[in-house]
Design a protein that fits this description.
This protein has 165 residues and is α+β, with helices and mostly antiparallel strands. The protein is built from 6 helices and 5 strands; from the N terminus they run ββββαβααααα. The protein has helices spanning 52-55, 66-75, 84-96, 100-116, 123-144, 148-162; strands at residues 7-10, 14-26, 29-38, 43-48, 58-59. The chain starts with 6 loop residues before the first strand and ends with a helix. It comes from Anaerobacillus alkaliphilus.
Length: 165
């Protein structure tokens, strides 16, 4: 299970830290809540303990998993959708999983798409690309003691390799 001080990832919110576990009385019932703080967004939220397993909350990646992250940033995944709305929806669904590898696939795919297009990405694709980068940056900061700038540079360096730069 999780403890106070653990660095965790909450799907679509990014990486944060468990600051506290509080007991609250709600409708005459005592419930435990995990108090999560997300420093990159400066957001605090309370997650009921009985919803932890279904929430997708997980610990941040370990340094040993960086090679897998780099591979995902360089390779992406094949998408089947040519329809821009469906393509955007697929990327949004990948981001909602909370998986750093899925976020890396979104970055790889959209970076390649942006590189190949002469007029840039559609607005929804740009939003998904920014969100994916933000999710990975938040996790790299907590998991690997990187600064925000170092984390963005890490992403850019590894994505450029897949574009032949």
């Amino acid at each position: 299970m999780f403890n106070v001080g653990d660095h965790v990832v909450y799907p679509y919110h990014g990486a944060g830290t468990i600051r506290n576990i509080e007991v609250k009385e709600v409708l005459g019932k005592k419930l435990s809540y995990f108090v999560l703080y997300f420093p990159l967004n400066d957001v605090t939220l309370m997650l009921p303990e009985d919803r932890i397993s279904s929430s997708g909350l997980r610990k941040v990646i370990e340094e040993t998993q960086l090679d897998e992250l780099i591979h995902a940033l360089q390779n992406g995944i094949q998408t089947k959708n040519e329809n821009p709305k469906q393509y955007s929806r697929e990327n949004e669904n990948l981001l909602k999983t909370g998986s750093i590898i899925d976020a890396a696939h979104v970055i790889a795919n959209l970076s390649l798409k942006e590189y190949e297009r002469t007029n840039g990405l559609h607005i929804q694709d740009r939003k998904n690309l920014d969100k994916a980068k933000q999710l990975i940056v938040s996790e790299l900061i907590l998991a690997n003691d990187m600064t925000e700038d170092e984390a963005y540079a890490f992403i850019d360096k590894n994505v450029q390799v897949s574009q032949g730069a």
